[in-house]
Amino acid sequence: MVSICGGCNAMRPWSAAIVGFLASFIMKGLERALMKLQIDDPLNAVGIHFGGGVWGTLSIAIFKYDGGILMSWEKRSFAVSFF
């Protein structure tokens, strides 16, 4: 949910499902990293909100349906999307 909120008006439903699926791995990775670093986060708010939010923001450049990297396949779309 958190990862798709940033680009909900710019992505197709199938790409939103991919973004959410990949965000689950990011969340679990951050959860394990915080446990290894012995940082107390009982609600896993960092993994959910920070990890999902950053991934969701970056995924707009990849999955945007009228100019994203996967949708347009132009060399300059990478630079335009990220910069």
From TrEMBL:
Does the UniProt entry include the keyword Nucleotide-binding? no
The membrane topology noted for this protein in its Swiss-Prot or TrEMBL record is: Multi-pass membrane protein
User: Coiled-coil regions in this chain?
Assistant: none
Q: Where in the cell is it found?
A: Membrane
Q: Which Pfam families match?
A: Ammonium_transp
Main location group: membrane
Provide a GO CC annotation, any one.
plasma membrane
This protein's UniProt keywords: Ammonia transport, Membrane, Transmembrane, Transmembrane helix, Transport
**Domain (Ammonium transporter AmtB-like): residue spans on this chain:** 1-67
> Could you provide one GO biological process annotation from this protein's UniProt record?
ammonium homeostasis
- Give the residue spans that cross the bilayer: 12-30, 42-63
The UniProt similarity line reads: Belongs to the ammonia transporter channel (TC 1.A.11.2) family.
- Protein name per the record: Ammonium transporter AmtB-like domain-containing protein
